[in-house]
Amino acid sequence: MDRDRRITVRLDFSKTLTVLDRGFAGDEHITSKILPDIELRFKGFNIHQLGDFRRWLEGDGGDKLTLLPIHARPYHQVVYQNTSTIMPLQTYHHASSVKGLSSITTLIVGASESILIDPPFLIPDALSVVGWIKETTSNPLKAVFVTHHHPDHFFSANPILDAFPSAKFYAAPYVLEGINREYDDKVKYWPTVFGHENVPEAPKKPEEFNFSFFLLNGNPESPVVLLGPLQGDSVDHTIFWLPTEKTVVCGDTIYGRSTHVWVEEVETPALLEAWNKTIALISALEPAKVIPGHLEPGWELDAKADIAHTQKYLHLFAEKVTYAQTKPQVQDLFDFFKDAFPQCQQNLDFFLGHLSNQFGEGGKVWEENRHHDVGKRTIEGLTGYWFK
């Protein structure tokens, strides 16, 4: 075969796949022997054999593909009827309002089902998410997951679960433990900040999800893998890895480059180094798409830039706080991080105010964030990161 021949692939997942072989006129169906070692690229897939491509479309369910040859010189067109409608998982993200700390909610849409990761902090943002889900997909929402115990990633699940009553609400056991540990205090505290109209009086709690992966019906070759517990801006995160799609839903292990990073709970060198190891793990996956835990509305995803942003933030935090020879003044610490990340314009009082007071000389520690003594998490207590 002439390897310079141009192959065009046009795909409509709901209907047909069309392969156009320029310059080939014949009656045979296109098979793997006609397309050896030719790389077809679609949505991040690199498929070197057409046979692999066909197996990917058919899936494990055994559904057949109908081959319909259409003869037209000098072109040979073969249409593959995709009767199983198998498609890769699609991911979409929704940024909460600035008032809601610009937390990210992720929607994963499969062939016949969808799931949601990280409901917003505030009720108005959750209502916006409900409308966004309905606009994005007609597939039923099967489950809602939580990456970690911080309230800006689960507190206003109520409106979403009310809108989709058949959806389950899940979190890994270690995430649920963190939610339970602080639940009563958070339920009392946050209405005093945002008002009862903006946060639920009784946020729903997730059930334990005791499995390391799941599959959506209709997507047998697209597992969603739960990795954790991992260190991020808090202990005990779950990240969601979609290996087929090369996508990671990171929660607050990665921050978008438009936002300051919450480092108030990185109280020891062990926690800092554990977070760096989490980022190394994410980078080693070589993801094509990284969905961070926070990103200002209107900013686009950028896997490399957002990973680099989080790494830079932790590097400067290590330099100015964790391994600093002297304790900086509160205002100096505030100004340093403000100047180091000029593109981060929102919620400075929240992110930098708490950072500088937590670690600056003479600062006033935010007691509401002290319900769990993360400083006791030593290297010995983070056995997943070091062999001891």
Automatic annotation (TrEMBL):
InterPro entries recorded: Metallo-B-lactamas, RibonucZ/Hydroxyglut_hydro, Sec-metab_biosynth-thioest
One GO term of the biological process aspect: secondary metabolite biosynthetic process
Record domain Metallo-beta-lactamase: where: 102-294
Pfam families linked: Lactamase_B (PF00753)
SUPFAM superfamilies registered for this protein in UniProt: Metallo-hydrolase/oxidoreductase
Name this polypeptide is given: Metallo-beta-lactamase domain-containing protein
Organism of this sequence: Aspergillus thermomutatus
Origin organism lineage: Eukaryota, Fungi, Dikarya, Ascomycota, Pezizomycotina
